[in-house]
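Structure ticket #2291
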Amino acid sequence: MIRELETGKERNLFDEPTSQLSWGRDWSPDDKRIALRRGTPDGVDEVVLVNTKGSSSGLRVRYRGNVSSHVSWSPGTDQLVVGIYLPNNGPRHLHLLDPNSRQRPVEIPEQDPAYDYCDGALSPDGKQVAFGFKPHVGPR
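Resolution: structure written out below.
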């Protein structure tokens, strides 16, 4: 749902009924798309890009996999930061994801495998990332 603050007017972001939305929405730098994480009925997470006019105007599943936490859009570099769990019940690490290509997410280097990293936010120039972290405690 999108609400215009000045008028209170609301419109649905998704044209089809969905109860599997999750958290971590973020606007694209050009205000035309929103990136978010959602769960699917088959239990897979997706990073979805949806047109702010509604999903009938554009919806793209950019990544399917074991996604965690917030999806963040860098204002200056047009990249997404996504937390993705590593295979075999490994920790979640932050990855960069190009919203405009089909390339696989690229893990941000130098993350300690003993920690879970989440809620990354790139600086406008794309040279720094702010994040939360905690020790990884095994299978979730």
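Closing remark: The domain at 2-135 is CATH 2.120.10.30 (Neuraminidase).
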